[in-house]
Write the structure tokens for this entry.
Amino acid sequence: MQRRVVIKTGGSLAMIAAAISAGVLPQSAFASWNKNAFDAKNLNDVVKAMGGSTAEKSGDIAITAPDIAENGAVVPIAVASKLANTESIAILVEKNPSSLAAQFDIPGGTEANVGTRVKMGQSSNVHAVVKAGGKYYVATKEVKVTLGGCGG
Amino acid sequence: MADPMRIRAQLKGDTTEVRVLMAHVMETGQRKDAAGATIPAHYIQNVSATHNGKSVLSAYFGPAVSQNPVMNFSFKGGAKGDKVVITWTDNKGDKRTDETAIA
């Protein structure tokens, strides 16, 4: 009998743990800040965490960023998408500790053209991942970060 | 309570261009202070923008967004004098809401 009790309590504990890890509990606190996507380390993991499988390369996404950024703490990056039904735009910096820097959800009526400033630890590829019509597209641009200040 | 945001909303043709400057430290949680202790992460996670009560943008930031974040976007359907309201929430639960009229 003793053993059955142990199994029972063990089972219910496991269920609570499953509920927590599935994100049921923190969901209410942060509407849809996607922790998995912000923890992901590379492009493919971010796309998977956002619910896609792979991202297709697209020429309809324009990344406006400097070729050489003198100050890695403030790198202005703008992304414009010409894809129809653009639903969200994400900015990723490949060599940062976590790739995803920012994600923008674009409701209808808002132009698929957003800009912000991000930190870059070192020279790296910058990816823009666009979700349009349920599919994921990506464009890439390399940004060099000069550390010494006199060119790179 | 954090410092106020600076928001500019300008009507150009039929689109409204919005620029927002938020005052925030955006601490990544990776830096260490002089004593070698990690400075805890403190950054904006959610930013939402509404025009006349209708959502025009939701943004999710990670710690890699620069200190005092800047955000530009534009939407259709604004008119002069309409209100644009921006709200951000950071990972410590701090909130700030500011609004401006479209010029």
